[in-house]
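Tokens for chain A. Residues wanted.
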């Protein structure tokens, strides 16, 4: 049996149990009104009501469901026919009890009876027996037979319609939920794939492409030793990727190559400073010397800072940059400033990875942001901000 069918049957059985127990308790209340029945007949009715309620309670277990349906029908019909005993005069409360038993206590089997063809036979037989028992009982006692039979038949029709509606609605609803879940998984996989692609583009741009660019320009402005060290770092990074250190999501849309304490990309401000000194750019630090950040935030912060300094080295036309580190209770900021030739901010191509991906998007992934200020002939300032 499929999961959808199990969920359907479970809901039908729970609904049948709720309707049946509610009606049985109502009938017990009606029969317990003083003067409704003689004491021996009341005690016999009480035993049958207990059997009826126990069988209704067992419906939700879905074990031996057909058996408990038969118990409900037999106990309910017996509870109706017991009022045929000699000397029994049905008062208003007893008639109400007979009506409720026939229209709901026994009719609750309609809700679960529509789930299979074999149970439909039981449902039809139970309806016929219940209506006949009520007709005989009320006919002999010359009580309100027509109203009670109409009420009973209405109850059977209503509960049958409820069972049919639930049996058709639940599978459709569960299928739609399953379809939405599959669509969500596909969309999430696509988002994660896109995030991996962007992360790979950032890593490639910040490392291998930077080295290849230097090689393409014959290493102008960079010593052979610095070029060899940078190429060695790139080779170490590629080796880690080859060994299985692939970007994995810590949460949806949040990726990192390795825990920052194990990364060879540079984890301290001093290592960043030494890296750029080897390539001919003097970096002057100002402000806080210790940056206390979570490992993933620190990794993104240092990589974005390194990319800013790389842009200074490549494009500013100067050999010196200033980095001012400040922090408050919630954020850490780095202001990267150079006195170079500057440029028109509006002229930045949105398709370039250097600023949009390696700086802005990288910081945004950890809850930070970046702002760029520059104009031709007036140098450039980049403000990086990340949360603590």
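Reply:
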């Amino acid at each position: 049996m499929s999961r959808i069918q199990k969920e359907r049957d479970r809901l039908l059985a729970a609904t049948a149990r709720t309707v049946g127990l509610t009606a049985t308790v109502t009938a017990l209340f009606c029969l317990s009104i003083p003067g409704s029945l003689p004491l021996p007949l009341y005690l016999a009715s009480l035993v049958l009501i207990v059997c009826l309620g126990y069988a209704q309670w067992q419906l939700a277990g879905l074990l031996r469901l057909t058996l408990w349906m038969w118990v409900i029908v037999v106990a309910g019909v017996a509870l109706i026919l017991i009022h045929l005993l000699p000397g029994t005069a049905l008062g208003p409360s007893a008639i109400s009890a007979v009506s409720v038993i026939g229209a709901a206590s026994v009719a609750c089997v309609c809700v679960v009876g529509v789930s299979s063809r074999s149970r439909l036979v039981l449902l039809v037989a139970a309806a016929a027996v219940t209506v006949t028992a009520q007709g005989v009982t009320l006919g002999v006692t010359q009580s309100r037979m027509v109203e009670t039979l109409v009420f009973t038949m209405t109850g059977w029709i209503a509960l049958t319609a409820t069972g049919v509606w639930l049996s058709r609605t639940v599978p459709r609803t569960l299928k739609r939920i399953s379809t939405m879940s599959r669509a969500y998984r596909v969309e999430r996989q696509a988002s994660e794939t896109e995030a991996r692609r962007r992360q790979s583009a950032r890593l490639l741009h910040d490392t291998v492409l930077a080295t290849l660019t230097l090689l393409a320009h014959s290493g102008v402005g960079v010593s052979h030793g610095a070029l060899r060290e940078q190429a060695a770092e790139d080779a170490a990074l590629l080796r880690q990727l080859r060994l299985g250190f692939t970007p994995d999501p810590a949460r949806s849309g949040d990726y990192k190559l390795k825990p920052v304490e194990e990364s060879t990309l540079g984890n301290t401000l001093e290592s960043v400073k030494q890296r750029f000194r080897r390539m001919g750019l003097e970096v002057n630090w100002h402000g806080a010397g210790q940056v206390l950040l979570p490992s993933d935030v620190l990794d993104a912060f240092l990589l974005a800072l390194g990319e800013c300094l790389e842009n200074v080295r490549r494009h500013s036309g100067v050999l010196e940059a200033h980095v001012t580190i400040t922090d408050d209770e919630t954020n850490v900021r780095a202001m990267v400033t150079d006195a170079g030739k500057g440029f028109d901010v509006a002229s930045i191509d949105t398709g370039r990875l250097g600023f949009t991906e390696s700086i802005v998007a990288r910081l945004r992934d950890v809850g930070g942001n970046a702002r760029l200020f520059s104009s031709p002939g007036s140098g450039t300032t980049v403000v990086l901000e990340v949360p603590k």
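Strands lie at 248-251, 254-256, 282-287, 320-327, 331-338, 369-374, 380-387. The CA atoms of residues 115 and 204 lie 60 Å apart.
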